[in-house]
Amino acid sequence: MQQLVRVSERFVYLPPYQETDRPVLAAISGDKYTLIIDAGNSADHAKQWLSQLGEKNIKGDWLVLTHWHWDHVFGLSEMNMPIICFTGTLDRVKEMQLLSWEDSALDERVREGSEIPFCADAIKKEFPEQRDIMIPTPDMTFTSKMSLNLGGVTCIIEHVGGDHSPDSSIIYIPVEKILFLGDCLYANMYAKNWCYTVEKVTNMIAKLEQYDTEIAFLSHAEQPMTREEYRAYLDLLSNSAELTERFKGDTGLVAEEMSAMLQRPLNELETETIQFFINGYMQ
Ligand SMILES: [Zn+2]
């Protein structure tokens, strides 16, 4: 079972669990209020998190969603607190409320292309039997950016978009220099070939660059990124975008130039990232 990790006096998180695609959940506490980030992929996941928070005497007052994907919202029914999200996230949650999550319905959506096998399989694993999923409607929405004063700590919540999910929003805590990214740096997994697009990544990075970041959380990464690791990830994305454009989607030339820039052979993540940009360019 995943165990709560304390990063600072104010910030704690529950690491991800890859087997059933459970994302990182986090909580930031000010002198007056606590903000919970994401609801988890099931009532079980949410309960596990709430009970570990309870042991530390942490009680959530608000919850914010990073985006609409199932693994971030299916735990909402357990989260007895007001839910905040981007307007686009609210729209998608309302659509999800109408869906059935039984095997036959999931399989049908995979067949017609509105769901992907990766998610359908993880949902079946997370919910082997009972699948009575209830997703409450979020209570408060924002259209581009908002801030929350938790008492001595301010959180900035901003919609940044990107390829993974157009509604992706980040949470930044200035006093801690912690940036919670959700899934926003990942590729679009709903496309036929997983992809990044130059324009979406460039716009997203311009927004992310505003935030001076010491620790960055990606929802499905075992460990948070240091400043240097995060910088390297952003550089990989922006260099891949720039080279994809310059070499008009020629995989060989992009890889060759990237390898020359780094003065070493490319690793798996770099090769894969370039391929996703080429996939996006070819669409
Ligand atoms: Zn996602």
TrEMBL record:
Q: Which UniProt keywords apply?
A: Hydrolase
Q: Which reaction does it catalyse?
A: 3',5'-cyclic UMP + H2O = UMP + H(+); 3',5'-cyclic CMP + H2O = CMP + H(+)
SUPFAM superfamilies referenced in this protein's UniProt entry, alphabetically: Metallo-hydrolase/oxidoreductase (SSF56281)
SMART domains from the UniProt entry? Lactamase_B (SM00849)
One of its Pfam families is Lactamase_B
Top-rank taxon of the source lineage equals: Bacteria
Where is each Metallo-beta-lactamase domain found?
21-220
InterPro entries (UniProt xref): Metallo-B-lactamas, NDM-1-like, RibonucZ/Hydroxyglut_hydro
Q: Which GO terms describe its molecular function?
A: hydrolase activity
The free-text function statement in the UniProt record for this protein reads: Counteracts the endogenous Pycsar antiviral defense system. Phosphodiesterase that enables metal-dependent hydrolysis of host cyclic nucleotide Pycsar defense signals such as cCMP and cUMP.
What protein is this chain from? Answer: Zn-dependent hydrolases, including glyoxylases
What species is given as this protein's source? Paenibacillus uliginis N3/975
